[in-house]
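Subject: Sanity check before I submit

Could someone independently write out the structure tokens for this chain? I want to compare against mine line by line before I put it in a report. The sequence has 188 residues.
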Amino acid sequence: MRHQLSGRQLSRNASHRRALMRNMSVSLLRHERIRTTLPKAKELRRVVEPLITLAKNDGDANRRLAFARLRDVEIVEKLFAELGPRFRSRPGGYTRILRMLPRPGDAAPMALMQLVEGASATAAEEPAGEVKKTGRRAKAAEKPKAKAAKAEAARKAAPKAQPKSEPKEAEPAKAPKKRARKKKSADD
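---
Independent answer below. Compare away.
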């Protein structure tokens, strides 16, 4: 029986769990946003928020405590130089957990975990509910849009050498050609 034992086991033993939380903490503090499963994100919050609270008061003892928990000099420096002063006026709640669509492979509940007062460039990158496609089809779908944007920019930048008396009629936009798939033959 687990009498008065707090925290999630995450199907790992104690040393594996400690290493997992250390690695995820370093990743979150380095990139200021990570994508992980919901139970891991909720457990990570219990590790990262005390570290940020520790970083509000810079001192040798606090730096040593943070290094003992993170084991990464670069991240400890960022924690005390950037993140501690950024959250100095905030009494707590330094992280935000946004739910995402389930993972396609096993339908695990996914979450986007980020620092609340993140850098301005990372704040509005993409909404949490959308999954960004990164395959051949997504790239192929982006190509017509990019070509259309370039053509529009070239049309705007081109000097107008036409007389104003004869306006040129606009041609309708052509739909992109569909690629035909090769049918598999019985030889393959």
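---
OP: Matches mine. For the report I'm noting this point. The radius of gyration is 26 Å.
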